[in-house]
Amino acid sequence: MTPSARIAAAIEVLDRILDGQPAEQSLLRWSRASRFAGSGDRAAVRDLVFDALRRRNSLAAQGGALTGRGLMIGALRAEGRDPAAIFTGQGYAPAPLLDSEMVSEGGDAVDLPDWVLPYWQRALDERAEAVAEAMRQRAPVWLRVNPLRASPADAIAALARDGIEVRTDTRLPTALMVLGNERKLAQSRAYREGLVELQDLSPQLACAALPVTPGLRVLDYCAGGGGKALAVAGMADGAEVTAHDADPARMADLPARAGRAGARITICDTPAGTFDLVITDVPCSGSGTWRRTPDAKWRSTREMLETVLKAQKSILENASDLVASGGSLAYMTCSLLEEENADQVDAFLADAPFTELARHRWSPLDASDGFFLSLMQRDA
Ligand SMILES: C[S@@+](CC[C@H](N)C(=O)[O-])C[C@H]1O[C@@H](n2cnc3c(N)ncnc32)[C@H](O)[C@@H]1O
Question: Which of UniProt's keywords are assigned here (predicted)?
Answer without folding.
Answer: Methyltransferase, RNA-binding, S-adenosyl-L-methionine, Transferase
